[in-house]
Amino acid sequence: MFWKSLLFAALLAHDVSAQGSSGFLRFGCSQLVVERIDPLVNPGVNPSPHTHQIVGGNSFNVTMDPYTIDPPAQSTCTSCIYTEDKSNYWTASVYFQSPENGTFKRVPQMANGRLNGTLLEQEGGLTVYYMRPFSGKNMTTTAFKPGFRMLAGDPTLRSKTGSYPGICHRCLAASERTMGGNGAPCDSKDTASFPSKPCLGGIRITVIFPSCWDGKNVDSPDHRSHVAYSPGSSALAGDKCPSTHPVRIPQVMYEIMFDTTQFNNPDYWKDGKQPLVYSFGDATGYGAHGDYLFGWKDNALQRGMDALGNKCGSEDCTSVLKIQAGKDAIACTKSQQAKEDVGTDTCTYGRPHCWNTANIYFRA
Ligand SMILES: *[C@@H]1O[C@H](CO)[C@@H](O)[C@H](O)[C@H]1NC(C)=O
Ligand SMILES: *[C@@H]1O[C@H](CO)[C@@H](O)[C@H](O)[C@H]1NC(C)=O
Ligand SMILES: *[C@@H]1O[C@H](CO)[C@@H](O)[C@H](O)[C@H]1NC(C)=O
Ligand SMILES: *[C@@H]1O[C@H](CO)[C@@H](O)[C@H](O)[C@H]1NC(C)=O
């Protein structure tokens, strides 16, 4: 039922008539920085074990103590379109490992047409969703508390377990390259592993976070157990939350697009092999995961969620939330704190530094 309504909204989302008829807020964020820093899993560690691609508020830092940081106050800009959102969103980078000589090259990200056409001129970034469940009626959600953070997925997984059904890869057809493909995320077209064949339109990675919270802890030792998926086989929110995690929170989802097309040589994709590997050393894709660190100003997220379907449509909540121009979001970048060459879009042209023989970005 939820998906019926969400799908309907997604199909309509680019139509002006869709305003006021959707169950999620969706917006784009451009790249803030690519570096080996992870204030959630490895606070204080510089460099952290592996590379990440990070978007959001520029108060992103090596250490972000939940009780003392204040991203809305400490950020002077955000790479996301809604300016009150100083949260940070990050995922692991993806590398191509040459089957010929074993060296690595970072796979460029590409913009997603779902960024509402505002951030298309940049290479990286991701699309963020804050979703509201539907179950016979539209369910209310309780926005996160200051300091809240969580992790979705399990970086140690190397086989299919069903533990994290909402984390998947879609092999895009050439025609889907710009918009990233339609339909429900993590449906039968998607795989928990990396795709097993070359993807003419690149790869879209989807990370769906849990939708229920224990109501007490802004974090937990594994960064996961203070939140839970609603019961059932799908990661997507129903209206039910388990008694251990009774508070329904907005369900966060990321979409990240990778331009894998320069690696589509069929020789790299045969005999059951594929050449991609996550920066944490996972060549299966099952360990895909995402990190979230809440940082909306005051009650802005709550206001946006509560106005869904009324003053807010999925792509346009500008009557309730402040928005900036795409170029201003793109201008919000941060210099690396873990200084090293992680490769850039210029790597596409094969500059020697783009190939890492030392494997320095890969430590699980
Ligand atoms: C990052 O943390 C360091 C050390 O606590 C601090 O000096 C610096 O101002 C912080 N940077 C930002 C952007 O908050
Ligand atoms: C390694 O192989 C890739 C192609 O798979 C090639 O582009 C690159 O130049 C090679 N690097 C070295 C150091 O041979
Ligand atoms: C749920 O909200 C959507 C807009 O988000 C609206 O179109 C729909 O009528 C609502 N459904 C119910 C049953 O309230
Ligand atoms: C998305 O595009 C619509 C139509 O151009 C515009 O009204 C709206 O403000 C945009 N929203 C975002 C989040 O960029």
TrEMBL record:
It comes from Melanomma pulvis-pyrius CBS 109.77. This is DUF1996 domain-containing protein. Residues 1-18 form the signal peptide. The keyword DNA damage does not apply. Keywords: Signal. It holds the Pfam family DUF1996. InterPro entries: DUF1996 (IPR018535). The keyword Transcription regulation does not apply.
